[in-house]
Amino acid sequence: MKRILCGMAAVIMAVVSVGCGAMQNGADNTPAPTGDQLVAMSVEGLKEEYDFSFSKRDLSQDIDTAVASILLADGATSVTGTGVTVDGNVVTITDEGVYIVSGELTDGCITVEADKEDKVQLVFDGVSISSNSGSPMVILTADKVFITVLEGTENFLSDGEDYPDEEIDACVYSKEDLTINGTGSLTVQGNYKHGIVSKDDLVVAECALAVAAPGDGVRGKDALKICEAVMTVTAGGDGMLSDNSEDSGRGYVYMQSGAVAIAAGADGIQAQNVIYIADGAVDIAVSGTDEYSTLCGMSAEQAIAVTDGVITLDARDDGISCGGDIGIDGGSITISAGDDGIHSDTSLVINGGEIRITSSLEALEAANITVNGGRIDAVSDDDGMNAAGGSDAADDTGGRPRRGGMGDGFAADADAFIAIHGGYIWLDAGGDGVDSNGSFTMSGGTLLISGSMGNDNSAIDYQTSGTVSGGVVVAIGSVGMAQSFESRGSAQSSISCRFQGTMDAGTMVTMKNADGRAILSFTAPKQFQSVVISCPELASGEGYEFFVGGTVSEADEHGFAYGDIGLEGGESVGMVTAG
Length: 579
Known about the structure:
Radius of gyration: 29 Å
Helix content: under 10%
Shape: elongated
Oligomer: single chain
Largest sheet: 33 strands, mixed
């Protein structure tokens, strides 16, 4: 029978009053982070800099009195009304107004060349336009153009494989603000380069939009905003992107609601500055090659914020990658990643929601990681949570988030920290469970770690300080570099002990207090040799008996139970006294 080596148990108790509330974050006296500072910046602060609103006309399906009706036909296009000229199969809109368009051109185009103050609305009522050379839909001048697809109609645009004008590079190309709305459907088949490109803002509202292209799928240079649309994007490059790097308050992707499915050869959603998912469904699969600098599910340079929605990401690189801050306030996120599940060069704050990382190199990585709430279930080949300084990047990618690690994972960094204040976290790590190049603080929530059996890894690993003042921690792993919490600054007791030999995967371990009541139980997903436990029930001088085997009916899906639980059966393997 395997036995706990009680003589090697390290009992840690901080000589600090719990009620004082003056917990310090390590030997360098760095104050503990507030936790919600990032989300305030990445959502409320972003709303002050970026325009996440939609105009009334963006969302309206009302059609004002038309100035003209256009019936497309090869060599015989007819127009009723004004503001339109026809030259063969080239239809040009020159004035403000609403234009009802129907019919088919097998090799033609519609061009908008109105005054810079004009608003032009094209109402597609069963339109099919193909172009053998060039784009079938070109917007050169206007204040704003609306393409409205009528309810119950199917509309189709397709370009040629060669363009005479190198500046125009998309099946739908606009130099001005463009809104695609309505309750019908529009299919855009790009054969030359990109699917839809707007050099200003691009809004997609309510309609069903399908886009395929060998290059990028959907691009709004200044902004790409989505509301209630159902979009399917298949792209050889980025699926959706906004790439203005020159103007303040530009270069962002915002999704208010709707459903987006993306199959991309590069990033699924890429923004020069900001991505904000407020709600909706996002499903992204990235399967590109090293031709592209990044192959991430979602990537941005300044900030990524998620407040709600259902997000599924399958990426060759990071699932979510940001050169700046990431804030997750809610929603459901599922990630399968070839590199990091979620990566920030600066700060990652999780306030709520459900995050499930099914595969990754490192699950959560940032210089600073704060968890205030929510649920995290993560599997990683290396570290589960890694706080390290540096950039996930090379230098020659033109401002795009970049591939690589965060530098020297062993170098101490006084500014790096992991702070857990709440939530439920389960980590199945092939390396360290929690690895901070700076400090690690635990003040609330539940943290369950199954670390590596490798002697160069530890379930808990920190460089400058590691303290606990609240919450429940169960961390199992190898004994080679096993680390527990420090006494200095810790307001809650911890037990750290090792088992004689190696415990098998699937072993259930239960801890009883001095009254013989089972208060905590866990089942190991893989082999382990040591365990660190901290919870509010631990009291200095009290003995705690450990049992293996038996049955605990209250266990959750990870085999964890805590509180007033019942143990049937099991065999005692030793006693540990809390200090």
